[in-house]
């Protein structure tokens, strides 16, 4: 979903940026410790969670998201790490975030993904309303 971006906007202050970065980082801690009952602290109740690259399609809502994570079982990485977070405020008042995710499997293999998020603010708190998880499979071409 394309949004018009207002780079360098003063509307998103440093406190917003810190809260959003903390929120994005918190996802891995919740998943890795099995605290799926706390996903509402990161995502909206009606979250769109696009895991099409992993055969899951677009999942709608927290309960369906929890069920999908549980169904992954041992295929779910044991360690989720986020880096390279880039935030841009959009003209509709949401925030667009791109970040890199590194997942470590039980066997020790590392996988890389890109998280493409749309965040919304409600009741003075930020939440991820849409996340697309994109697999990185092919090397860059010169």
From TrEMBL:
Q: Which residues form a coiled coil?
A: none
> What transmembrane ranges does the database entry give?
none
**Annotated Pfam families:** SnoaL_4
InterPro entries (alphabetical): NTF2-like_dom_sf, SnoaL-like
Top-level taxon in the UniProt lineage: Bacteria
Domain (SnoaL-like): residue spans on this chain:
14-131
Protein name according to UniProt: SnoaL-like domain-containing protein
List the source organism. Nocardia callitridis
């Amino acid at each position: 979903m394309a949004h018009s971006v207002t780079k360098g906007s003063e509307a998103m202050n440093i406190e917003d940026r810190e809260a959003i970065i903390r929120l994005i980082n918190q996802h891995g801690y919740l998943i890795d410790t099995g605290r799926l009952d706390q996903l509402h602290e990161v995502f909206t109740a009606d979250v769109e969670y696009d895991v099409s690259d992993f055969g899951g399609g677009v999942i709608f809502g927290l309960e369906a998201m929890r069920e999908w994570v549980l169904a992954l079982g041992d295929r779910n990485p044991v360690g989720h790490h986020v880096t390279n977070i880039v935030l841009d405020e959009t003209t509709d008042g949401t925030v667009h975030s791109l970040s890199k995710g590194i997942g470590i499997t039980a066997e020790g293999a590392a996988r890389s993904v890109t998280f493409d998020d749309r965040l919304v603010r409600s009741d003075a708190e930020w939440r991820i309303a849409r996340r697309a998880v994109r697999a990185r499979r092919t090397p860059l071409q010169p």
